[in-house]
Write a structure and sequence with these properties.
The protein is of the alpha/beta class and 308 residues long. It has two domains: 2-113 and 243-307, FAD/NAD(P)-binding domain, CATH 3.50.50.60; 121-239, FAD/NAD(P)-binding domain. 24% of the residues lie in helices and 29% in strands. It has seven helices and 19 strands. The chain has helices at residues 11-22, 58-71, 121-124, 133-136, 152-161, 181-189, 288-307; strands spanning 2-7, 27-31, 75-78, 81-85, 91-95, 99-107, 111-113, 129-130, 144-148, 167-171, 193-196, 199-206, 210-217, 223-227, 236-239, 243-245, 256-257, 260-261, 274-276. The strands form five sheets. Strands 1, 2, 3, 4, 5, 6 and 19 form a seven-stranded mixed sheet that branches. A five-stranded parallel sheet has the order 8-15-9-10-11. Strands 12-13-14 form a three-stranded antiparallel sheet, with no helix packed on it. Helix 1 (11-22) runs parallel beside helix 2 (58-71), helix 1 runs parallel beside helix 7 (288-307) and helix 5 (152-161) runs parallel beside helix 6. The radius of gyration is 21 Å and the shape is elongated. The two termini are 17 Å apart. Bound molecules: NADP nicotinamide-adenine-dinucleotide phosphate. NADP nicotinamide-adenine-dinucleotide phosphate binds next to helix 5. NADP nicotinamide-adenine-dinucleotide phosphate (NAP) binds at residues 47, 117, 149-154, 156, 173-174, 178, 200, 240-243, 286-287.
Length: 308
């Protein structure tokens, strides 16, 4: 039986691993995909304390966090957990490969991109529609792309996409961005970036690839179709309209609010020995630095619980 099972290897889970490992707790981090969670989809991280000002990729930051956790003896397992029993002294997690038992569990399952909710979305995912500029931006070298959203992610990723795309149009449902002012300023200065204000995407169309997008004016209700330049024959659409917490696995056992896990300030959930950290948690600021802080606190609390 493990002392601590950490579900998810984003910044919250990896930091929990570093602290639990350093505290000599027998710890495993279980991740079903790539390390880093959402920062694995981020080209530049420039606001994590100690980062170089010009930023570094989310993947490389996550790699260093993972190495640090492994250095402290934390075990890494790739598995997808299908069901959990969190009540009781022994927590049981059933995965596709194995079953895991633990004295404590740290939920660090993060969040996933909110779907745009337009017609054609399922059909064109991976064929012109993407939720990851770092992964797919280069496919649109020399082409036009549309970025949906007006928050930090949308505007930062739009700026990143100008490295590849000829023109990037930010489609935002209001006439004012939500993104931090410093990020907005960079976008307004960038000659490759245009804006479709007061607009939402109602449909993406095409054959094999996207060659038309339908935008609806949120003020007048009018719809307009924008077709790809015939010379290009296609364009890209990137969605960045927020995230939804990944809680399906434990939503019947853990108290949620607005879909997010409720914890106290020490990351305790409603079940003794079960903690939640990072973006899956109800909180006011979802950043690498707050996920890391959550992870550190949860690991220390898990240690106290086991000793107690
Ligand atoms: P967000 O801050 O929740 O912004 C979502 C954006 O999408 C908003 O502009 C919102 O419009 C729009 N939106 C939401 N639902 C929509 C819908 N159904 N149709 C059309 N538009 C919709 O999400 P985010 O930008 O992904 O950021 C998530 C969190 O990560 C935030 O806390 C953010 O600060 C943080 N983050 C930080 C950084 C950084 O610090 N460098 C980078 C990336 C993300 P409204 O504005 O009208 O609500």
């Amino acid at each position: 039986m493990y002392d601590v099972v950490i579900l998810g290897a984003g910044p919250g889970g990896l930091t929990a691993g570093i602290y639990a490992g350093r505290n000599r707790l027998d710890t495993v981090i279980i991740e079903q995909g790539q390390d880093g969670g959402q920062i694995a989809l981020t080209a530049d991280i420039e606001n994590y304390p100690g980062q170089m000002l010009e930023g570094e990729s989310g993947i490389s930051l996550a790699e260093r966090m993972a190495k640090q956790a492994e250095h402290f003896g934390v075990k890494r397992i790739t598995d997808s957990i299908d069901s959990v029993t969190l009540n009781g002294d022994v927590k049981i997690l059933h995965g596709k490969k194995d079953t895991y038992e633990a004295k404590t569990v740290i939920l660090a399952t993060g969040a996933f991109p909110r779907p745009i909710g337009c017609k054609g979305e399922g059909e064109f995912l991976g064929r012109g529609l993407s939720f990851c500029a770092t992964c797919d931006g280069a496919f649109f070298t020399g082409l036009e792309v549309f970025v949906v959203g007006g928050g930090d992610s949308a505007v930062e990723e739009a700026i990143f996409l100008t490295r590849f795309a000829r023109k990037v149009t930010i489609v935002h449902r209001r006439d004012e961005l939500r993104a931090a002012k410093s990020i907005q300023e960079k976008a307004f200065k960038n000659e490759k970036i245009a804006f479709a204000w007061n607009s939402v995407v109602t449909e993406i169309k095409g054959d094999d690839v996207i060659n038309a997008i339908v935008l609806k004016d949120t003020v007048t209700g009018e719809e307009r179709e924008i077709k790809a330049d015939p010379k290009d024959g296609m364009f890209g659409v990137f969605g960045f309209i927020g995230f939804l917490p990944r809680t399906d696995l434990f939503k019947d056992q853990i108290t949620l609010e607005d879909g997010y896990v409720v914890t106290d300030e020490n990351m305790h959930t409603n079940i003794p020995g079960v903690y939640a950290v990072g973006d899956v948690r109800k909180k006011s600021l979802r950043q690498v630095v707050t996920a890391a802080a959550d992870g550190a606190i949860a690991a220390m609390e898990a240690g106290k619980y086991i000793e107690g």
